[in-house]
Amino acid sequence: MVQNALQGQELTVKSTISQLCQLSLGGPAVGVAFGLVIVIWLRFIYNQDVVEVTMTIVAALGCFIVANDILGVSGVLAVLCLGIWMAAFGSHHISRQVQQPLRIVW
To answer: How much is the mean pLDDT over the chain?
Structure first.
């Protein structure tokens, strides 16, 4: 919004509310989508600590890049929702032997 105002575009109430909704709802939607994919993917991996830890790191970074740079929604909210989703649903699919190294990384 600030960037649009600095570029000389007129700010209206409708455009401001539209952009706010896009940022605040689109980011969490991207985070949940990434969370679903990662949880499904984790079901097929067992006791591979490097793979599981790397997947979580790549998911967080990829989620931010896709949300912020590609889709133009809030990358911070996307990663936040991804983290909440993984804490609620993803932790059950991470192998027991991998949980300690994963805690060390995060």
So the answer is: 85
